[in-house]
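User: I'm new to structure prediction. If I give you an amino acid sequence, what do you actually give back? Let's try with this one:
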Amino acid sequence: MRNHNPVARFYSLAPTRTRAIEAKCAECMGCTKDHLEKGFKKEIRNCTALSCALYFFRPYQISEKIPPQ
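Assistant: Good question. You get back a string of structure tokens that encode the predicted 3D arrangement of the chain. For your 69 residues, that looks like this:
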């Protein structure tokens, strides 16, 4: 079974930069190792904490496609 909790995934698998960022952002939105906050991905996507060092690296962002010129 796949583990959808980024915090639990960080502790159970080999730590990587991506997993660390996902876990920290999820933790900031209220997730813990044993609890997954409902709608945390949407909250991370809509994060407005520009002063956060991870703001530009946060997961679940919708990439904006730039039309060809």
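You can read the tokens as a compact description of the fold. Here is one thing that stands out. Residues 6 and 22 are 6 Å apart (CA to CA).
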